[in-house]
């Protein structure tokens, strides 16, 4: 396997280098052909790298920059004053060809805005979308998009998301003819916004896609669809609701506090209702589903949660490496070009 270089915003996230650097070391240990460009404050980064083996340090290049994106005054201000920040320099490294993908746990809106400006959407793509994998009760994984990049979407936006999601699922989950569903408030044809109903008509007409209809929110984790398509508003709300519920359930299942009545009762109910799936539920690792990717761009950009721990951020790095090695942007572009609608 050929060597791969990723650009890392080492200052992004709630804790910055104290998470991103140990996670980088972990990712490098797991992937011997990976190298990292670390953008951030050298004085903070170097002490955290000092205990790493020389073989690991040799695959890390630190690009010093003391400035970070400050979104407290609004995204427009942040973008205008992003020069020489760790996030912008990491994206520019990809733009210049010095790295094959970018990973950041910084501000989502800033990352999306800078990526769209510097890396550009693929030809024919109206709007890039945030995409992520989600677990299912079957033990498999599903793909869901958009998760917040586009609050309002028309039918063609949703249709393009479905196309990109299908290609992404084929090349990251190794699926053939993935099942596509539109997230809606009901399964009846008359339900939902006009944009969703019109998107359904477009998807039905495309025989190259395996469109299975509408999906309600209570079936997001049931494995009924491989690709779940929605606008960024509903997608972001749904994902954060799932994440919060999952963390609370897992916390209760793993709790050692026997004095907690809620933990005791809830644990009993889960054991009774799910029985054979109980152990599988206890073993779910939410760190494996950290972050999302901004697809529809010319290069790979992965957004990690700002609150990600070391293990979760290492997974985000591994995800970016996988997408870069499998050339996901190029495969999306090739797949979209086969579709006549995008060529109009």
Name the CATH superfamily assignment of the largest domain.
Answer: Isopropylmalate Dehydrogenase
Q: Within the CATH hierarchy, at the fold level, what is the topology of the largest domain?
A: Isopropylmalate Dehydrogenase
The first-to-last residue Cα distance is 39 Å
Describe the sheet with the most strands. Answer: 11 strands, mixed
Strand order, main sheet: write it out: 3-2-1-4-11-10-5-6-9-7-8
**What sort of overall outline do the alpha carbons produce when their principal axes are compared?**
globular
Strand residues, percent: 15-25%
Structural class computed from helices and strand pairing? alpha/beta
What is the count of DSSP helices, taking H or I runs of 4+ residues? 13
Please write the CATH class name of the largest domain: Alpha Beta
Radius of gyration: 21 Å
The parts where pLDDT drops under 50 for at least 5 residues are none
Sequence of secondary-structure elements: EHEHHEHHEHEEHEHEEHHHEEHH
| Helix fraction by DSSP (H/I, runs of at least 4) | 40-55%
Per DSSP E runs of 2 or more residues, the count of β-strands stands at: 11
CATH architecture of the largest domain: 3-Layer(aba) Sandwich
Q: Tell me the domain tally.
A: 2
The mean pLDDT is 86
Function: Catalyzes the reversible formation of acyl-phosphate (acyl-PO(4)) from acyl-[acyl-carrier-protein] (acyl-ACP). This enzyme utilizes acyl-ACP as fatty acyl donor, but not acyl-CoA.
GO biological process, one term: fatty acid biosynthetic process
Pathway: Lipid metabolism; phospholipid metabolism
GO molecular function, one term: phosphate:acyl-[acyl carrier protein] acyltransferase activity
């Amino acid at each position: 396997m050929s060597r791969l270089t990723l650009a890392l915003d080492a200052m992004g996230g709630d804790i910055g280098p104290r998470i991103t650097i140990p996670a980088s070391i972990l990712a490098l240990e797991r992937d011997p052909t990976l190298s990292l460009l670390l953008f951030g404050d050298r004085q903070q980064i170097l002490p955290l790298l000092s205990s790493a083996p020389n073989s690991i340090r040799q695959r890390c290049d630190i690009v010093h920059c003391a400035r970070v994106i400050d979104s407290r005054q609004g995204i427009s201000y942040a973008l205008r004053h992003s020069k020489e920040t760790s996030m912008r320099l990491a994206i520019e490294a990809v733009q210049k060809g010095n790295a094959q993908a970018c990973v950041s746990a910084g501000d989502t809106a800033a990352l999306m805005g800078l990526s769209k400006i510097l890396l550009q959407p693929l030809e024919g793509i109206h709007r890039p979308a945030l995409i992520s994998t989600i677990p299912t009760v079957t033990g498999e994984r599903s793909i869901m998009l958009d998760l917040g990049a586009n609050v309002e979407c028309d039918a063609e936006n949703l249709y393009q998301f479905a196309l990109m999601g299908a290609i992404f699922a084929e090349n990251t989950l190794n699926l053939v003819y993935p099942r596509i569903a539109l997230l809606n408030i009901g399964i009846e044809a008359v339900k939902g916004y006009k944009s969703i109903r019109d998107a359904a008509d477009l998807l039905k007409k495309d025989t190259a896609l395996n469109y299975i209809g509408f999906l309600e929110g209570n079936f997001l984790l049931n494995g009924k669809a491989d690709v779940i398509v929605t606008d960024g508003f509903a997608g972001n709300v749904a994902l954060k609701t799932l994440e919060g519920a999952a963390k609370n359930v897992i916390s209760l299942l793993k709790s050692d506090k026997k004095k907690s009545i809620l933990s005791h009762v809830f644990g009993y109910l889960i054991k009774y209702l799910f029985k054979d799936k109980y152990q599988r539920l206890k073993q779910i690792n939410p760190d494996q589903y950290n972050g999302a990717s901004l697809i529809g761009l010319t290069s790979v950009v992965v957004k990690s949660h700002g609150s990600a721990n070391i293990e979760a951020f290492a997974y985000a790095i591994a995800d970016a490496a996988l997408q870069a090695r499998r050339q996901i942007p190029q495969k999306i572009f090739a797949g979209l070009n086969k579709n006549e609608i995008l060529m109009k």
